[in-house]
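Reminder to self: tokens first, then the designed residues, so the page reads top to bottom the way the pipeline ran.
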């Protein structure tokens, strides 16, 4: 760690870990409810559980992105963060909004718009929080001695994340118009600007972990940005197929959605090529594993599984079924959860000075969580295909088809238990590192600071 102010990233990483495990708890509540064991229904109705599960995902990933920015931008700009007190105020206000939102979901205070359930008054606080965060990041870059492409791509992604939150705050009486702009937020976040954030963090990690020239890695970054915007913006059309918009969205959405895997394929080729090209044998193997798995699993989950049901003729049957859950779980895990876990795995030894990055706990966490997630995806796939056949092909009633696919959720719970064991081990490792300290500050190359002998 080169700068004392980078320590503020720890708070955001710790919040991410807390909210991540809470998100998993609500996932189990939903899984057992699907099996018919909805014993908590009086306290946590299914609609509150699903709203909490999905929104916690967004909040813990955003917290991870913010922590990554607070760690990376000072390093890339070669200067201290513009204001640590401002970052701490932003952290506590961000956590406060998250807690109020979760409590609100349990007392019926939410909007009922999928993925954007947070009540409108809290939206304004989220927007204010994002402005404070971006002011701190941008002023850090401007006062810095260096201006790298990596830091600008990461910052641009975060700015667009904030800007694209605004369409979701506008009130529309027409349900179709509301859904049209709601997808501007949801789709253009996860299949647009979040990819820029992911690309920026991925580039930073590959520069640090492989030893490949910055110029080479940042040229690849331009390719990824181009592919992301080419396919991601008009690819939003696959959400417009059946919501009441003109039919030309079937053609636009079908063509450009089919191109969306290209950006993830480029990221995969980018990561593997840079790793093979690298001449640095970095001691933090776990950070390398998480970094490479980000690119590979994202391509499978977001790219290939997304392509599997993005064409209109297929989506007509799979839309809103557990096939979507299959794609969503592996896509979010590969593309965004893994990149947050990668930057945490890289940053914690540097912030704390504790070189425990290659222990058995960390390796078990990596393999169990990834194998568990693949098993969960398989269970969702089997349940989704069965649901499509029962509900959409032979026309069985929705609730009756849910009863028929209950056994698949038993398999899902087993797979989720394996996944959760891996995540718990990751958090145990996170706690083992302890708090950041000034003794971890180093003037030299971070690679040397991580050498164990």
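Designed residues (453 positions):
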């Amino acid at each position: 760690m080169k700068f004392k102010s980078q320590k503020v990233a720890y708070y955001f990483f710790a919040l991410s870990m807390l909210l991540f495990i809470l998100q998993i708890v609500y996932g189990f509540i939903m899984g057992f409810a699907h099996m018919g064991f909805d014993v908590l229904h009086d306290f946590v109705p299914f609609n509150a559980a699903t709203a909490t599960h999905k929104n916690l995902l967004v909040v813990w990933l955003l917290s991870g992105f913010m922590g990554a920015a607070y760690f990376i931008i000072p390093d890339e700009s070669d200067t201290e963060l513009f204001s640590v007190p401002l970052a701490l105020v932003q952290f506590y206000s961000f956590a406060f909004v998250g807690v109020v939102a979760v409590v609100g979901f349990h007392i019926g205070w939410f909007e009922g718009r999928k993925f954007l359930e947070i009540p409108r008054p809290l939206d304004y606080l989220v927007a204010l929080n994002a402005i404070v965060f971006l002011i701190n990041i941008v002023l850090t870059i401007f006062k810095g001695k260096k201006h790298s492409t990596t830091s600008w791509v990461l910052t641009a992604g975060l700015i667009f994340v904030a800007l694209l939150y605004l369409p979701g705050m506008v009130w529309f009486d027409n349900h179709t118009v509301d859904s049209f702009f709601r997808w501007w937020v949801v789709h253009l976040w996860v299949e647009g600007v979040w990819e820029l954030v992911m690309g920026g963090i991925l580039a930073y990690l590959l520069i640090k972990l492989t030893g490949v020239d910055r110029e080479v890695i940042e040229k690849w970054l331009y390719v990824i940005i181009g592919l992301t915007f080419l396919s991601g913006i008009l690819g939003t059309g696959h959400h417009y197929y059946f919501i009441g918009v003109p039919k030309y969205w079937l053609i636009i959405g079908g063509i450009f959605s089919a191109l969306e895997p290209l950006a993830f394929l480029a990221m995969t080729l980018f990561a593997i090529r840079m790793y093979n090209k690298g001449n640095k044998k970095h001691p933090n193997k776990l950070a390398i594993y998480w970094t490479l798995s980000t690119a590979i699993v994202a391509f499978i989950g977001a790219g290939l599984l997304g392509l599997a049901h993005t064409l209109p003729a297929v989506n007509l049957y799979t839309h809103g079924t557990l096939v979507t859950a299959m794609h969503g779980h592996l896509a979010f895990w590969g593309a965004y959860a893994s990149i947050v876990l990668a930057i945490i795995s890289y940053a914690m030894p540097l912030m704390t000075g504790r070189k425990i990055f290659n222990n058995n706990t960390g390796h078990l966490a990596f393999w169990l969580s990834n194998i568990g997630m693949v098993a969960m995806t398989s269970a969702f796939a089997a349940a989704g295909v069965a649901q499509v056949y029962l509900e959409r092909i032979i026309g069985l009633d929705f609730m009756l088809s849910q009863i028929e696919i209950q056994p698949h959720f038993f398999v899902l719970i087993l797979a989720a238990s394996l996944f959760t064991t891996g995540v718990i081990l990751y958090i145990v490792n996170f706690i083992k590192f302890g708090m950041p300290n000034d003794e971890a500050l180093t003037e030299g190359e971070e690679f040397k600071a991580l050498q164990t002998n």
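The chain has a mean pLDDT of 92.
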